[in-house]
Predict the structure.
Amino acid sequence: MGNYVFRWDVLWTSPYKDWLVSGIGKTLVIGASAWIIALGVGIVVGMCRAAASRPLRALGTVYVEVFRNIPLLVQLFVWYYVVPPLFGTAFIRMPNLNLYVAIVGLGLYTASRVAEHIRSGLNGVGKGQYWAGLSTGLTHFQLYRYVIVPHSIRLVIPPLTTEFLTIFKNSSLALTIGVLETTGAANRISSSTFQGIEALTAAMLTYLVIGLTVVGIMSLIERRTRIPGLYGRG
Amino acid sequence: MATLRRAWGIVAAVVLSLVVWSAAAFAQQAEPTLERIYRTGVLRVGMREAAPPFAFVDASGNHAGFSVDMAYLLAEKLSEWAGKPIRVQEVTVTPATRIPAVTSGIVDIEMGSTSMTAARELVIDFTLPFFVSETQFIVRKDSGIRSLSDLNGKIVASAEGTTNLQALQRVVQEGWFNPAAVMTVETHAMGFLSLQQGRIDAYFTDASLLVGLRASAANPDDYVIIPEAIHLEPYGWMVPENDSDWRDFVNHFFLWTLETGVFYEIYDKWMGPGSETEIPRSQAYEHYLQMVRWPGLDEAWPGRRQ
């Protein structure tokens, strides 16, 4: 590697260690908070998209198309540089505004993708179930509550796992609006110490551990909620 | 059994490609820059996009500026040396990526407005200083801020990955003034935008860049550059570490531009009287440009490639 000298001790020396720890904390906060928004908004929009009423479907489609066709980076810039000035100088100077913007922007973007998964989950439960439920005297609400939704939840857990993972990876974009999360902290350590390889390795391991934890949790949920015989090797 | 054989086959393929790749990487490390430039006919220059008047993007979307002009002139001199045309490949860099771009070999030279620091010198090599800059700050005129002490309780900012940010953090720590917050932005353009929007009260960067930022505003008179310097830095161009022949070539090129007066022509084009970002040469700077020259340039340079 030419002249590069490895100094791994940089990673647990202050202030670099503090930047890294604080950065990891921010990544977790952004990812978890944005995921809550993404689920909340995404489920509602997804149900709109699969609704019988045409205006509801149109509303859902507009949301999804707007938020998934614009690159997330551009969305973050718009939320940070274009929207806050409209609310006045006091709003724009709020401390940690960039953190909140990152959470909201990331949440709304991911919600559009979650909505699509919810929609395909709802529609993926066969028409047969729908008519059979109605014909046995269930109301629409009971049909969804006891037949469609439980089934479609099992269907959407794998794609939602992907979205949950992606939200933590996408949280790194927050560094472009000044949030010192994991990747931003690694960059700052790199430019202060020139030990870029160590810093980036730390960032990489952080995301890997977060990702594996997410996958572990979702696998647990998947196994606990599996309906034997429903499909595959269940 | 077939699966086991296939597994070993994959392992062998991975190991072989790793060996080949690292050999190629090492071979690339070992090749001197001048030789690579000669072989490929390309001079890869790292260029900033928002560091006027040294390197920026003009209205037509082209890279322009003092260091950009110098880059093309350098390529001309390389063509003379090589005996064949050497063309410039412009590679965009930011304050955060400019050093990795040089150390990893993505660019042969970074020509912009990089401050020379001892820490950076350990990982790359700087060419002779071509400019000296001070870290100052710019404010909105109507904010009433006219000195460092007026910044108490205000929000200040600088660009991530710059020595200006490190200087700012250091003086705040040492208690020169007490801001409400020190924020960071990715580029000078974003920093100036934040100032315009009222998100921050002062943006810190090199005085020369502040002049460029202020000039690029629609209403330059609404902004004031406060000449209180918190830091002093020479600018140099960056070349890969331990490549003396290449660094000698660029240094001799710089001295040649001084000897022939081309340096002053290009300086006056971008920073001379009447230009958009006028930065008068101080007496100390003029003396430096005289003292740095050494004799015998004509006989030794650019020569012909052996």
